[in-house]
Amino acid sequence: MKTCGDRPVPTASRIIKYKTCLIHFSSSFITSVECSARLPELNRHRSCAALLAKRFPFSSVMASYHKPDEKTLQGLRDIANKLRINSVKATCASNSGHPTTCCSAAELMSVLFFHTMRYKATDPRNQCNDRFVLSKGHAAPILYAAWAEAGFVKEADLVNLRKLDSDLEGHPTPKLEFVDVATGSLGQGLGAACGMAYTGKHFDKSSYRVYCMLGDGECSEGAVWEAMAFGSHYNLDNLVAIIDANRLGQSEAAPLKHDMDVYRKRCEAFGWNTYVVDGHDVEELCKALWQAQQVKGKPTMILAKTFKGRGLKGIENMENWHGKPMPKDRAEEAIKDLEALIQNPNKTICPELPKEDTAPADLSPISLPSPPNYKIGDKVATRKAYGVALAKLGQSSQRVVALDADMKNSTFSEMFHKAFPERFVECFIAEQNMVSVAIGCATRDRTVAFASTFAAFLSRAYDHIRMAAVSESNINLAGSHCGVSIGEDGPSQMALEDIAMFRAIPTCTVFYPSDGVSAERSVELAANTKGICFIRITRPELKVIYDPDEKFEVGVAKVVRQSDSDKVTVIGAGVTLHEALAAADQLASEGKSSSWWPGRELHHKRCPGPLFIGCLHRRDKSDLFSPIWTFDSNWAS
Ligand SMILES: Cc1ncc(C[n+]2csc(CCOP(=O)(O)OP(=O)(O)O)c2C)c(N)n1
């Protein structure tokens, strides 16, 4: 069977022309046409065509496709081989890396970067540029090679791959201007790409498009399919994903091997438009990627049948070559072979420039438009104050967006939803994807993203949160129903590990507010704090203990009570601060008032240990020797 490329048939009326064809169609476009002599099937096809026309009115009638001229196509083939050569050279120089992973993707990268995507090669992070996420991050050398071909990276630097003092790390990170999100933990790129595409379509309302490349082995990750469901649910027609189906994973073949039809059916079942292509045929790729640009209402998946190690004699399509650089002599031979395929080594192809329809990000600080509106002694749950503050911040800045995982009526992010439905992203019960989507939304400072759910369920997204830090992301995560204070719901709903979990994340600031005032200020501080922010919020109502004008700072604990005769320091935060205060009151009533107990509220920045030492300010030397008691509702201390 000939797979897509020869003649995709965009409209039902055109289908009828192919009288003797057996038709295979994706839900919005015909993807492959196989001629057969089965005339009796004609009538069935006719009715099928009529049915298609009825079901898919094709809001966009496809503009006509112009095949690139032969010179351009050869130029793209030449670039693909140059990318291969540079990937082999770089991995040889570092004596590590994944040359075979790069080689299967060479034509895909060439066509994407030098035919399809629109971007300013001199300004990779320009807000108008198309975005590219290399979800199979171990193919980093070919990404670096593509940016060298585009002129942004010096070609001579490519051999510094994986060196300690080089930003060309083994897996891409945003230390490089052309990388928006770090990848390398497989399965996470598509969720981030969804966040970028959602932002482009619904927040920026701009024409930039988002491309994401995945490995076939990677597609065993459930997170990929969470992202697939999200992409089609939100009709992200500005999103194109590509599976580099090179058959092989790391230790053996990927489960579907080269069964492109099963890939197609799965992607279509998830609501995506699909094209099955020969991933080494630049012309087919140009056409499929062009077609994808015409599709309305759905994201597109390009299913590219490729061979791992393509172009490397004796290695192509062989097992046991994953993650292995080629021995020097074999590399030299392979480079010669590849050079021989290049017809015009000096030809460069400049990418098309993007449409200038995205405003630069507004980086001004974001403040609550009014102070928290509670009186000391009022009772309010910090989760509710979170919702109030988020809605207030939404008034202050268009960049504030909120995400939730079907918990908005528990986390109170529904208050933001009610006020700004157009800036609320329901991610449904898919916490890993919610974190990745938030990361995507926050790239290039397009949004200030707050994502909320029960704190307990953020633990299943831990690897995504870890990668958010590697991505230098500024996302804010709010976890409600923390600690044992949620009571009757039982341990499955209680976040007990969350403080330990977030404290271990580099760049993370943990806010654990104790009342409505500090909760609102935590949200305000988080919006302006770089790195990951975690706001730990509680279910039960707590007494307001701070004046609405109380000032809070990251990394500085509050002294709630103190006296000159204090004997011990008592530390609490959130709900436990109130327990500590009750204990202090009880001791006082028992005549032990000589030992006044200061309770302290914590906003701790990368606390080094369970005692939050970084936050405590001893008042004098004698304080150094006073005992410290902590009250905690987690398993971190
Ligand atoms: C979550 C995760 N699990 C495991 C790995 C280790 N690993 C790196 S590459 C790889 C195989 C990937 O295969 P595939 O997605 O098909 O990519 P290919 O190299 O074949 O293009 C594995 C298992 C990883 N990086 N991330």
Automatic annotation (TrEMBL):
<dbReference type="InterPro" id="IPR005475">
    <property type="entry name" value="Transketolase-like_Pyr-bd"/>
</dbReference>
<keyword id="KW-0479">Metal-binding</keyword>
<dbReference type="GO" id="GO:0046872">
    <property type="term" value="F:metal ion binding"/>
</dbReference>
<dbReference type="InterPro" id="IPR029061">
    <property type="entry name" value="THDP-binding"/>
</dbReference>
<dbReference type="InterPro" id="IPR049557">
    <property type="entry name" value="Transketolase_CS"/>
</dbReference>
<dbReference type="InterPro" id="IPR009014">
    <property type="entry name" value="Transketo_C/PFOR_II"/>
</dbReference>
<comment type="subunit">
    <text>Homodimer.</text>
</comment>
<keyword id="KW-0808">Transferase</keyword>
<comment type="similarity">
    <text>Belongs to the transketolase family.</text>
</comment>
<dbReference type="InterPro" id="IPR051424">
    <property type="entry name" value="Transketolase-like"/>
</dbReference>
<protein>
    <recommendedName>
        <fullName>transketolase</fullName>
        <ecNumber>2.2.1.1</ecNumber>
    </recommendedName>
</protein>
<keyword id="KW-0460">Magnesium</keyword>
<keyword id="KW-0786">Thiamine pyrophosphate</keyword>
<dbReference type="GO" id="GO:0030976">
    <property type="term" value="F:thiamine pyrophosphate binding"/>
</dbReference>
<dbReference type="Pfam" id="PF02779">
    <property type="entry name" value="Transket_pyr"/>
</dbReference>
<feature type="domain" description="Transketolase-like pyrimidine-binding">
    <location>
        <begin position="380"/>
        <end position="544"/>
    </location>
</feature>
<dbReference type="GO" id="GO:0004802">
    <property type="term" value="F:transketolase activity"/>
</dbReference>
<keyword id="KW-0106">Calcium</keyword>
<dbReference type="InterPro" id="IPR020826">
    <property type="entry name" value="Transketolase_BS"/>
</dbReference>
<dbReference type="Pfam" id="PF00456">
    <property type="entry name" value="Transketolase_N"/>
</dbReference>
<dbReference type="InterPro" id="IPR005474">
    <property type="entry name" value="Transketolase_N"/>
</dbReference>
